[in-house]
Design brief:
By secondary structure, this protein is mainly alpha-helical. Helices cover about 75% and strands about 0% of the residues. The longest helix is centred in the C-terminal third of the chain and has 33 residues. The relative contact order is 0.06.
């Protein structure tokens, strides 16, 4: 059972003579500094209010718009104009982002503008490849195919994006830049797979398998990053999110075949729900709940196929999902704390820093 003390409790202990005035002063300062540290850590966590949503949506629209622009500009003006445009845009975004970050102390919009500047790197490298006719795959494709087709000619663009994002991350420690690096690495894993497997092409199932294993690697890295509390923000958040997208998406895209495979799929998703309590990351519960719902919907469709009861069974699954969300919201933190108390010391040390701090709070 965990007992929590407030400043009033300590003051009462001082008045009762259990501690002296000097001890009370030291404890008061410690609690104040601890409260400030927790408040700072909370303020650095990802926020989902309307303002932040607009900032992130704007950055994503800019990155998408430049991809669309490149195709038209390349056809009308050629590779040199495309290169100049990418450089000018990168310089403008970098200058504006640095100004907001350093002069105005607006880290989120400033960091997103820096991310937009990094997003110009593959565009510039694509223009350079076209100018010097460097295309290892032997087949020229428009820039928009960077997000569709898998081929080795994209490797310089991926490496350049990773390098640009890494340099930006050193100067501006903004967690979203980690997402760009993870995204480029995911593309690289796909582009390198045919070469590593010694085949010209590989099937959809093989792509899903590569994505699944790559997602596992990213999740392992996210867990390692999460073992330490980072003063400049939650750098593990985007790694957890992207790793789950790659892993869960690859897992769900697999052809499970028989009923045992489908049941194992459900078991993995149940494991994600429990893992969310261990890691204190709700995103795992979200993906796990969607996966379990997918499996239950499959069962409902099989058992109640061509039956009037199917809509009721599906509605019941939806209600259960809502109830699960309510229970997780109400009791998730308490269950996580209980798990922390029951775990052996060596396993508690493997929990993320924020989970360990909550256990000791």
């Amino acid at each position: 059972m965990k007992i929590r003390f407030t400043i009033n409790d300590i003051a009462a202990a001082r008045d009762a003579g259990a501690i002296d005035a000097a001890s009370f002063e030291r404890l008061s300062q410690f609690l104040a500094s601890r409260r400030a540290a927790l408040a700072e850590a909370t303020s650095q966590a990802p926020r989902y209010d309307v303002v932040n949503l607009l900032w992130y949506a704007g950055a994503l629209i800019v990155l998408g718009a430049m991809g669309m622009f490149s195709t038209t500009a390349f056809g009308l003006w050629g590779d040199k104009a495309l290169l100049v445009t990418a450089i000018v845009y990168a310089a403008m975004f970098a200058f504006a982002g640095a100004y907001l970050w350093r002069r105005r102390d607006l880290h989120t919009p400033g960091g997103l503008l820096i991310a937009c500047a990094v997003g110009m790197a593959p565009l510039a490298i694509f223009a350079l490849q076209s100018m010097y006719d460097v295309n290892p795959a032997g087949e020229a494709r428009p820039y928009r195919d960077f997000y569709i087709w898998i081929q080795s000619s994209w490797l310089p663009m991926e490496l350049g994006t990773i390098a640009a994002a890494s340099v930006a991350l050193l100067a501006f420690p903004f967690p979203f830049l980690v997402m760009i690096i993870a995204f480029a690495l995911w593309f690289m894993s796909m582009d390198l797979t045919p070469w590593l497997m010694g085949v010209a092409e590989f099937s959809w199932d093989q792509r899903a398998t590569v994505s699944m294993y790559f997602g596992l690697v990213v999740l392992a890295v996210a867990w390692l990053v999460d073992l330490k509390r980072w003063r400049n923000g939650d750098f593990a958040f985007w790694l957890h999110l992207f790793g789950l997208l790659a892993f869960w998406g690859g897992l769900t895209a697999q052809h499970s075949g028989n009923e045992l495979g489908k049941a194992l799929y459900c078991g993995v998703n149940v494991g994600l729900i429990f893992l969310s309590l261990f890691l204190m990351r709700r995103v795992y519960a979200v993906f796990g709940a969607v996966g379990v719902t997918t499996y239950l919907s499959y069962l409902a469709g099989s058992v109640f196929k061509d039956s009037i009861l199917f809509p009721f069974a599906l509605s019941g699954i939806g209600v259960l999902l809502i109830v699960f969300g309510l229970l997780f919201h109400r009791y998730g933190a308490a269950i996580g704390e209980t798990i922390g108390e029951l775990l052996p010391a060596h396993l508690r040390g493997l929990r993320p820093a924020h989970a360990r701090e909550q256990d000791s709070a």
